[in-house]
Amino acid sequence: MSGTRRPLKSLGQNFLVDGTVIDKIIQAADIRPDQAVLEIGPGRGALTKHLAERAGRLVLIEFDHALAAWHRDQYLGNSAVTVIDADVLKVDLAALLPEVAQKWNVVANLPYNISTEVLFRLYGVHRRLARMTLMLQKEVGDRLAAPPDCSAYGVTTVLLGLWFDISRVVVVHPGCFHPSPKVDSVVLNFMPRSEARAEVGDEDLFRAVVKSAFSMRRKTLYNCLKSAEFAKMIDCGELLEACAIDGRRRGETLSLEEFALLSRRVTELFKEL
Q1: How many angstroms separate the CA atoms of 2 and 151, rounded?
Q2: CATH assignment of the domain containing 63
Q3: 28-34: which pairs have CB atoms within 8 A and are 24 or more residues apart?
Q4: 3-state helix, strand, coil in the chain (%, to 5)
Q5: Structural contact between residues 62 and 42, judged by C-beta atoms closer than 8 angstroms
Q6: Of the candidates 134, 160, 192, which is a domain's last residue?
Q7: Is the dihedral of CA 19, 22, 27, 33 positive or negative?
Q8: With the C-alpha atoms ordered 125, 197, 55, 34, is the resulting torsion angle positive or negative?
Q9: Residues 79 and 132 in one domain
Q10: Backbone phi, psi, residue 270, to 5°
Q11: Rg (Cα) of the chain, in Å, rounded?
């Protein structure tokens, strides 16, 4: 069934079929026998069989009910493999990936239509991860490496850059999939850092500051911050002046360090309230 059923466009299914790329992903993931692995969207199992051979424990999240049932049949009797029939965007990752000494390894060929949302959710459990090896649309991957003051630079660049060292494994061309997408993909390795790249104060406020700065890319930083929920309790003009940041700039021109500075100051102001 899994090898013959037509891929579902509604789920963004493009199944990886190139053996060389599969080998490179498995090699980059560097799975150890004592490691717990989460695979998001296993599809027809091109990566799954290799992960199951190497991991001490393997958890699969598959939104396609028929494929989830097929994986259960494939690994029936294998207590090391767990199949979760669910939308990854509705799974409580913090509950699924408990904080243990042996941190989790995540492997995924992410559907293009949900990749950014999945990245945000994985960012939220970064302290529980040993590594992530993810296939993304190349455009999304390029954003993660983008410098400030360019159109690709955005929320994911800043947030993921705070806690991960990101490196490219391989660019994957459309012909490596069935059906072939219309764009290139890229495999990236995400290595969680033991310490954040910058001190940001309260991380929830940091996320709010970053998201607000990019909320209206054509508007000035001052106007973007002023419209944020947290700004109802502070003076954005004084905030920017205290950080020596020109409020006439746009959010996309700020470096990670400048976002961290803003966030630390917002954290201090909230403590004074």
Answers
A1: 40
A2: 3.40.50.150
A3: 28/133, 28/169, 28/187, 28/189, 29/105, 29/107, 29/131, 29/133, 30/105, 30/131, 31/55, 31/105, 32/56, 34/102
A4: 45, 20, 35
A5: yes
A6: 192
A7: negative
A8: negative
A9: yes
A10: -65, -35
A11: 20
Read off the pLDDT of residues 169-183 as tens digits, 9 standing for 90 and up. Answer: 999 999 999 888 899
In whole angstroms, give the CA distance from residue 35 to residue 260. Answer: 33
Residue 38's region, left for phi above 0, alpha for psi from -120 to 50, else beta, is beta
Tokens of 78: 């294998």
Does residue 231 share a domain with residue 138?
A: no
58, containing H or E segment: strand 57-62
Q: Can you give the pTM of this predicted structure?
A: 0.90
Helices 256-272, 203-213: axis angle to 10 degrees equals: 120
At 194-219, the pLDDT tens digits run 999 999 999 999 999 999 999 998 99
Domain span holding position 220:
203-272
Whole-angstrom Cα distance, residue 250 to residue 214?
Answer: 8
